[in-house]
Specification:
This protein is mainly alpha-helical. It folds into two domains: 128 residues; 95 residues, Cytochrome Bc1 Complex, Chain D, domain 2 (Orthogonal Bundle), CATH 1.10.760. 44% of the residues lie in helices and 5% in strands. It has 13 helices and three strands; from the N terminus they run ααββααααβααααααα. It has a three-stranded antiparallel sheet with strand order 1-2-3. A hairpin with a 3-residue loop joins strand 1 and strand 2. The radius of gyration is 18 Å and the shape is globular. The N terminus is likely disordered.
C-alpha cells in the first residue's frame, strides 16, 4: 500500500471495486463507532443526564446532516466544530482528524442516505459541577483534543505499514491513544500500550478483533463490546495489516 502523498492515491479503508461510496461509508460508520455514540439508528440518544453536571445528547444525525453542506460535515467530524463555530463536546474528532478524503466522502455519502427519524435534541446544558470541571480543565471540548492530538500518531515504520498505521489511528487510537501507547497512568483495566500485540499469534489477534477475547481467555468488557460492534466489520486484509504493523512496532520497541 503506497504512502499518502500528492503522487499516490490517498490511503483509505479497504473498499470492494464495485462497492458504492455510500456502502463503503456505511461500513465506516460501524468501524469508526458512530453507532456506539449516536445510537443504532444514528438518531441520537442521551449521553449524560445529571443536571448538576450536564445534560448532553448525542446528535440525531438523521436530522442534522441535511442542515450541513459537505464541507461543514467534514469540519464537524474532523475538527469538532459546528458551522457557527461553536464546539462539539464528547465528540472524538481527534481520532477522525486524519481521515482521508475518499473515506470522508464515503462516510458523508452514507450519512446523506439516512431518512429523518426521531427528534432533535437540544445542545448541552452544563450544570454547576460541570462548569467547575471545565474550569479545572478536567473536561474539554472536541477542538481542544484535536489541537492536542494534531502531531500525535502511531510511529511510522516504513511504507509497507502506512495503510495499517492509518487504520489503527482512526480505530484503536480512541481508546489506546493516538500513538497507541495506552493510558499515561495505566491502571489494571485501562487500555494498554499496543506493544502487547507482539505477544499474540495471528490467529489470536484475529480472534481478539472479531470477538474481544484476548489470549488466555480473560474477560475484557469494553474491548469485547468494541470488537463485536465495530472491529468485527474490519476486513480480513485490514485485520492482518494491523497485526503486521503492531508486531513490527513491538519488535522495534525491543
Amino acid at each position: 500500500m503506497p504512502s499518502q502523498n500528492s503522487a499516490a492515491p490517498a490511503i483509505r479503508f479497504e473498499a470492494a471495486g464495485a462497492e458504492t461510496p455510500a456502502r463503503h461509508g456505511r461500513r465506516l460508520a460501524q468501524v469508526l463507532g458512530c453507532r456506539g455514540c449516536h445510537g443504532a439508528d444514528l438518531a441520537g440518544q442521551p449521553w449524560e443526564e445529571d443536571p448538576a453536571f450536564a445534560i448532553l445528547y448525542s446528535s440525531n444525525l438523521t436530522r442534522v446532516v441535511s442542515r450541513y453542506d459537505d464541507a461543514a460535515l467534514a469540519r464537524a467530524i474532523r475538527l469538532g466544530v459546528r458551522p457557527d463555530g461553536s464546539p462539539l463536546w464528547a465528540m472524538p474528532s481527534e481520532t477522525f482528524s486524519r481521515l482521508s478524503e475518499p473515506d470522508m466522502a464515503a462516510l458523508i455519502a452514507y450519512l446523506r442516505t439516512l431518512r429523518p427519524a426521531g427528534r432533535d435534541y437540544p445542545r448541552m446544558a452544563i450544570g454547576p459541577r460541570g462548569r467547575q470541571a471545565i474550569d479545572r480543565g478536567e473536561i474539554r471540548p472536541a477542538p481542544y483534543h484535536v489541537r492536542e492530538g494534531r502531531d500525535r500518531a502511531p510511529v511510522r515504520l516504513d511504507e509497507r505499514h502506512d495503510w495499517a498505521r492509518y487504520i489503527a489511528r482512526a480505530t484503536c487510537g480512541e481508546c489506546h491513544g493516538l500513538d497507541l501507547s495506552g493510558s499515561p497512568t495505566p491502571d489494571a483495566d485501562d487500555p494498554p500500550d499496543l506493544i502487547v500485540a507482539g505477544a499474540y499469534s495471528r490467529a489470536e489477534f484475529r480472534r481478539l478483533l472479531r470477538t474481544g477475547v484476548p489470549t488466555g481467555g480473560r474477560r475484557l468488557a469494553l474491548m469485547a463490546t468494541v470488537a463485536r460492534s465495530r472491529f468485527s466489520r474490519l476486513t480480513d486484509r485490514e485485520v492482518d495489516a494491523i497485526y503486521d504493523y503492531l508486531v513490527a512496532r513491538a519488535r522495534q520497541a525491543h
